[in-house]
Amino acid sequence: MVAAPLPPPPVAERRPHVTAAHGVRLEDPYAWLRADNWQEVMRRPETLPADVRAYLEAENAYAKALLEPLDPLKAALVAEMRGRIKEDDSTVPTAYGPFAYAVRFRTGGQHPIVVRRPADDPSADESVLLDGDGLAEGHAFFQLGSWSPSPDHRLLAWSADEAGSEFLTIRVRDLATGEDLADAVPDATGAAVWAEDGSGFWYVRLDAQHRALEVYRHRLGDDPAADELVFREAEPGWFVGVDRTRSGAFCVVTVSDHDTSEAHLIDRATLDGAPRLVEARKAGTRYDVDHHPMLEGRSTLMLRTNADGAVDFKLTLKPVDGGPESDLVPHRPGVYVLDHAVTARHVTRLEREDGLPRIVVRELATGAEHAIAFAEEAYALGMDAGPTFDTDLVRFVYSSPATPSETWDYDLATRARTLRKRQEVPSGHDPEAYVVRRLQAPAPDGALVPVTVIHRQGLALDGRAPCLLYGYGAYGISMPASFSGGRLSLVDRGFVYAIAHIRGGADKGWGWYLDGKLDKKTNTFSDFIAAAETLVNENFTSAGRIVSHGGSAGGMLMGAVANLRPDLFAGVLAEVPFVDVLTTMMDESLPLTPPEWPEWGDPIRDAEAFARIRSYSPVDNVAPRPYPAILALAGLTDPRVTYWEPAKWVARLRAATTSGRPIALRTNMDAGHGGASGRFDRLEEVALAYAFALAAVGHPDAAAAPPAFGAPG
User: Fold this and answer.
1) How many CB atoms are closer than 10 A to CB 214?
2) 501 closest CA partner among 290, 352, 320
3) In a 3-state reduction of DSSP, which class is residue 213?
C-alpha cells in the first residue's frame, strides 16, 4: 500500500515590518503572527485573529499529515508509558494539625483528588476535599493550582487555571458541606496564605501584563473587587509571591528578579498586619527566609543567602527584633546550599557538591551534624519538611534514572529511616537491566560538564546507537538525575538517553549558573555541544544520530545549537521554545520581558546586550544550512513563551533549510506553557515527541515515517 503523498508545508506570508535599534535595521516579515489583541487571546482563545488562526491551523494540519503515519507507534508508546503508571496512585499522607492530607488519582482519572483523614487514625475513611476530574468537566483545559486549609481546618482555599494562561481563580470551600463560598478571587497566581484567625488570606494578583507585582488581603465574604492592597512592587521586572513560615508566625512576601531578592514579613495573628522589611535589596544578593520562634531564647530568622561573597550560599541567623547577625553554616566554595528547613529542634539543609545532592541535619542545641547521602554514580534527592514545626520527622525522595522513586520518613533525632512508598511500575521494571553513568565532557574553556547517561545493559557502545540528549541551562535550575518511566520507551528501543548538566543551571553550584548568563550565555550552547561531542567520542552514539530536546529556555538552546552545529543532530525537539529572544527582550509590553533582563540583558538601553543577544538569538541567526528534522511544540495561551515565537522560527527555518528534512510546528490551541493538563493527555504529547525522535534517526519502529525524514540508516 503506497502512502499518500505528504502535502506541501505551509508558507507564511511575508509582510514588511522594519524597525531599528542601535543603528541596526531589523526586518521581521513574520511580525504579523503576533496578534495585536494577544492579552485578550490569553483569556479568550476564540478571539485570535482569523489570519493568525488560519496559519496556525495550517501548520497543525501539516504536522498531523507528517506524523499521522506514526500513529500506531505513538499509540504503542502511550500504552507503554501508561503501563508504567500506577493509575490509582497516591502520595504519602502529610500530617498537618488534626488531619493527614494526601493527593491521589482514580483509575482512568486525568486530574488529582485532594483527600484527608484523621491524623491519629490512618484506618478511618478519607474525605474527598477536591475532585479534580469533576472540576475539569466541561473545560478544554483545567489545572488544579494550590490548596491550603484554614487554621481551624474547616475551610480550604484552592485555585485553578481554566485556560492555560496561568490566570488562576482562588475559591474557598466549606469542608463540612463540600460547597464553595461566594468568594471567587480572579487573576491570582494561585497561592493563598491564611491569617491565623481564619478571617481571610493574602494572595498575589496578576496585572493585565501578567505580572505578579501586588499582594492583597481578602476578607471572607467581601467582594474581591474591594480587596485591600497590602504591598506593591514598583519595578515591573520583579516577581512577588507569598508563603508561610513553618513556625506559622509570619506570611512572607517574597520579592525577586533573577539576580536579587528581598522579603517582607506580615504577622499572621490577624489579617490587618502590615509588611515589615527583612533586609533591603542589594543588587546580586539573594536570600530565603525561615523562622524559629525561640532559638537561643529569642525569635530568630534563618536566611539562606549569598551575601558577602557567599557564591554558593550560607545560612545566617538574624534576630527578628534586631541585633547582630551571625553565620550558622558558613560559606564553603563548591558546596551549594539549595534549600533549608527549620523545625523545633533541627535545621535540615539540602546541598550539592560536584553535581551530587545530599541532606545535612544539624541539631540546634549542640551544633552536631550528620549527612544523608547515597553511593550511586548519578541520582536525584528531594527534601520536604512538611508544614509542621514541632516535629522530628523530615521526608525525602530518592531516585535515579534506573531506580523508581522512594519516599522515606527520616527521624532527625534517632536517624531511623522508614520507607513510606516505593514507586510502582505496574508493567514491570528491573533496575538491573539498565546502566547509569556520569560522564564529564570537557568544554572549550576547560570546564567539565556533567552528563548523566542511561542505556540498556548489553548495548553495544560502538557509535551506532541513537541518542536523545536533553538540556535546559537557565535561571539556576538544575536538571535532576531522576527516574522517568517515559524515557524507558526510548531506552528499551536501543537509545542512549543523556542529560547535559550545562552552565546556566546550578548543577555544580551557583557559580555554574553565573557562568551561563548575560555575557557568558554562549557557555550554555558550547557546553551542550561538548556533551554531544563527548557522547560521540566515547562511542555512545555518532554525529547525525543524536536528537536534541529542550523546552522553554531549553528550547532557545535547541534553536542555538541547531544553528551552530546542525551536523550533530538527526532531529531537534523544541517545546514552547524561547527562540525570538531579541524581539521579545525589546518589547516591554510582554509579560516577562522586564523580569528577564537580569538573565539575558536589556537590549533596549544597552548596545552591548543588543549585539550579544542578536549574535545568538535563534530566529535572528537562521541561515541557509542543512537543518535536521525539527518539531516545535507551542501553546496558544502561553504567557511565558508566546505562541508566535515558535511560529516565526519555523517560518524562517522552512524558508532557509537546505536539507529537505521536515520542519513542523504543532500548536495546542487549548493550552499554555505546560501543554495538555490531564496526565494521560500529556502522555499523548510526550509520545508524539518520541515518535518524532524515532523517525528522525530512522529507527525500524518508525519505518512508516514519510521519506521526507531522510534519516540515516
Assistant:
1) 17
2) 352
3) strand
φ, ψ at 38 (rounded to 5°): -60, -30
Q: How far apart are CA 29 and CA 82, in angstroms?
A: 43
DSSP secondary-structure letter at 14?
P
Q: What is the pLDDT of residue 4?
A: 62
How many whole angstroms separate alpha carbon 115 and alpha carbon 138?
23
Of these residues, 552, 602, 617, 620, which one is catalytic? 552
- CA dist 440 to 468, 501, 509, Å? 17, 10, 16
For residue 673, pLDDT over 70 is answered with no
How far apart, in whole angstroms, are the C-alpha atoms of residue 571 and residue 494? 17
| β-sheet bridge partners, residue 54 | none
CA–CA gap between residue 11 and residue 228 (Å, rounded): 51
**Residue recorded with cell 531506552:** 491
Backbone angles phi, psi at 253, to 5 degrees: -95, 110
Q: How far is CA 326 from CA 252, 329, 340, 360, in A?
A: 21, 9, 16, 19
Cα(first)–Cα(last) distance of the chain, in Å? 22
Q: Annotated catalytic residue: which of 258, 638, 677, 699? A: 638
Q: Can you list the alpha helix ranges (DSSP code H) found in 538-572?
A: 553-564
CB atoms within 10 A of CB 311: 16
| Catalytic residue status for 673 | yes
Strand 326-329 relative to strand 314-319: parallel, antiparallel, unpaired? antiparallel
From the candidates 258, 291, 501, 673, give the one annotated as an active-site residue.
673
pTM as predicted: 0.93
Q: What is the pLDDT of residues 514-539, one digit of tens each?
A: 999 999 999 999 999 999 999 999 99
- Stated as kind and residue range, the H or E segment containing 244 is strand 239-244
Contact 496, 434 (CB under 8 A): no
608: how many CB neighbours lie within 10 A of its CB?
A: 12
Residues 6+ apart with CB under 8 A from 522: 616
Query: Which one-letter amino acid corresponds to residue 524?
Result: T
Contact status, residue 604 vs residue 26, Cβ threshold 8 Å: no
Alpha-carbon distance of 278 to 480, in angstroms, equals: 32
Band the pLDDT of 3: cuts 50, 70, 90: low
Polymer length in residues for the chain: 713
Q: Residue-wise over 569-579: b if at least 16 C-beta within 10 A, else e? A: bbbbbbbbbbb
| β 546-551/467-470 pair status | parallel
Residue 262 C-alpha from the chain's centroid: 22
Beta strands in 154-283 (DSSP E): 155-161, 168-174, 179-194, 200-206, 212-219, 228-232, 239-244, 250-256, 261-267, 276-277
pLDDT at 373: 77
